[in-house]
Amino acid sequence: MLESYITVDCTADDYRRWQATRPTLSAWIKRMNDGGVLPVSRTDLTKEWIAPGEELHQELELLAEAGLSPNQILRLTGANAAEALHRSDVRVIETGRRADLVLLSADPGKPISNTRSIVWVMQGGRIVPRASPKP
After folding, report:
1. Span of 24-28, 52-56, 86-90 with lowest mean pLDDT
2. Residues 56, 47: contact at Cβ < 8 Å?
3. For residues 124, 103, 48 and 29, what is the CA-based torsion angle, rounded to 10 degrees?
4. Given a cut of 50, is residue 62 above it in pLDDT?
5. What is the residue-wise DSSP string for 14-82?
């Protein structure tokens, strides 16, 4: 369950307050998106309850909960981000490009939580080795 990731070290009172604000935050995000605001992942949600390393996946799941479609959500991390940064040198896979890619074993459109099914990550044209988990 999403809440278990987000609220690991929260007090019961912290959790109740966060839960009380979720519907308002979700409705606000949906209205902004539907109203033409260009949302970009990692900037449009508060992060008080999200742990580093998990935050992007959790943010995508919260956006789905707010009513955005998987396609809209995936655009936040790619096309919208490039547009917001006025970057035309990204979003294309071809020789000479930067080659920062993620290969998934499941379709993130069915459901968005499939972004967690990472097979490998490529950064700068090289596959990044997986680090050993730390105890």
Report:
1. 52-56
2. no
3. 110
4. yes
5. HHHHHHHHHHHHHHHHHHHHHTT----TTTSS--TT--TTTHHHHHHHHHHHTT--HHHHHHHHTHHHH
**Radius of gyration for the alpha carbons in the chain, expressed in angstroms and rounded:** 16
Rounded CA-CA distance 53/5 in Å is: 11
% of the chain with per-residue pLDDT over 70: 81
Instruction: Check if the beta carbon of residue 103 is closer than 8 Å to that of residue 119.
Output: yes
Cα distance between residue 63 and residue 47, in whole Å: 13
Rounded-to-integer distance, Cα 106 and Cα 108, Å: 6
Residue type, 98: R
